[in-house]
Amino acid sequence: MGSYKFFEEYNHEVTDDLKNNYSDILKGIGEDVTREGIVKTPERAAKAMQFLTSGHCQDPAEILKSAMFAESYNDMVIIKDIELYSLCEHHILPFFGKAHIAYIPNGHIVGLSKIPRVVDVFARRLQVQERLTHDILECINDTLKPKGVAVVIEASHMCMMMRGVQKQNSMTTTSGFRGQFEKIETRNEFLKLISSDLS
Ligand SMILES: Nc1nc2c(ncn2[C@@H]2O[C@H](COP(=O)(O)OP(=O)(O)OP(=O)(O)O)[C@@H](O)[C@H]2O)c(=O)[nH]1
Ligand SMILES: [Zn+2]
Fold it and tell me: Where is the signal peptide (predicted)?
């Protein structure tokens, strides 16, 4: 493990504060907060919310820097189908799906697991899908300084499924490209590789 900080423990002050607020929310929807099934719910929800937003106090650049290795490989590296779970900042409801990420090294490669870790740090914040896409893109670009980086995210938004417009099958795709991926041939090669099933 690198020197960067993972989510390790709950902050007791934050837990207490959130617990009181969740208790008020339950009362607000007419629940009896003393009944057996939900007596511990404010605390559970307080801890869940801390975990789901724990990316706000983690530094994704540190994660990448902790496992960068000098290497002369200078072809495309693709990590596809990285599952992600985030919360939309408008309704605080989940959106979830997959990220596909590629970079072309420029003297350094990065430990493969660090890319999904960076996805998690940015996803565990209140987000919109567009900003999540660019946060990941810019972090890899600025830290690894590769010849190019590409990020595609495909996600379903619970705020569009369970409520509101109530569309169950719509999928939102966002993408960002820097450096060599701004060239159409390189971008197309990446898009072709993430849509093919080589297994
Ligand atoms: N662009 C973008 N919009 C999002 C994202 N997540 C949720 N939204 C949208 O945020 C918008 C908020 O619109 P509002 O009109 O203020 O909220 P609302 O009345 O709850 O809207 P409806 O969801 O249409 O019922 C909605 O259109 C959501 O679909 C996201 O990641 N990106
Ligand atoms: Zn939403």
Answer: none
